[in-house]
Amino acid sequence: MSISLPSFAKINVGLRIGPLREDGFHELRTVYQTIALHDIISVSVERGSGIEIRCDDPRVPLDSTNTCFRIVDRAMQALTARGRVVIEIEKRLPVQGGLGGASGNAVAALLGLEQALRKKLPAPERLRIAAEVGSDLPLFFIGGTVLGVSRGEEVYPLPDLPAIPCVVALPEIAVSTPKAFADWDSLCGDNAKLTPSTHSDRMLEFSREISAWLSAVPITGRRRSGVSAIGGGRAENLLLDLVRTGIENDFEKVVFPKYPEMRKVKRVLEQSGARHASPSGSGSAIYGLFDSRERAAAAAKKLTRHGTRAVVTSTLTRQQYWKAFSH
Questions:
Q1: What is the CATH number of the domain that holds 190?
Q2: Sign of CA dihedral 289, 294, 297, 298
Q3: Nearest one of 168, 165, 166, 164 to 265, comparing CA atoms
Q4: What does the pLDDT look like over 172-200, one tens digit per residue?
Q5: For a Cys-Cys bond, which of 50, 129, 153, 176 suits 135, CB 3.0-4.6 Å?
Q6: How many CB atoms lie within 10 A of CB 190?
């Protein structure tokens, strides 16, 4: 029996890059948000042994470097399961777009494997295996709005926020995240202002922004009063309240100079009424959050006229996210 599941994308609502750690990773602070755009992952377990990856997209590796292969290999050992696992990946998300496509694929593959085997890993074991495979994987075991710290793999669920219209622009470029981090390190080396103590101050500042926002968000996800904690009168969408804190993505400082078309896309989204526009991760995908689907559709149409593919979607609440995986 083959199990088919959606593999959702994520965006980063703010991303603060800290100092390089002893393990070779950077300290990070970010808010992940799952969105409705997705790939399709199909998993079947047959007689025999081994793991086979099938995908028509030539940019997707079919060997043991694939994140689906790596997580399923670990999960089969943890579940003491036997069989030949076949994983089919229907790619709809861009490769190297910053939307967490490969990470979401891996998590969907593991969830599909559990359903196919009718066995389930304990939640802490899932998260441990996911963090071993990649920093972005654990967020997809939570869904909705998620705080990411450490190198991004340490995740905490934030209040589940109402869905909001979103435009994702997909320029025809691929941004290497390792190269973007290297460029950030070069920028820090050239900038005397970014001392180790400055790094610590910037990380603390991000934490304060999140704490100030959370102080106005009760656990139900609804504000205690009709006045925004950030100012501005009538209560509006809480995700938009977060971006009003001034939260930013540090990668803009290094990817925009190299890829000016990304800066142009962000400008078009903002001019079209986006309440917040930013690359997701290091890009190249750039999203805009809108207060109406009509404005989002108009922005996507404008980008398309400018020669950039753009799709209208929405953020996903945690409940919507997990409902898509139930059979």
A1: 3.30.70.890
A2: negative
A3: 168
A4: 988 888 999 999 988 887 664 555 556 66
A5: 153
A6: 8
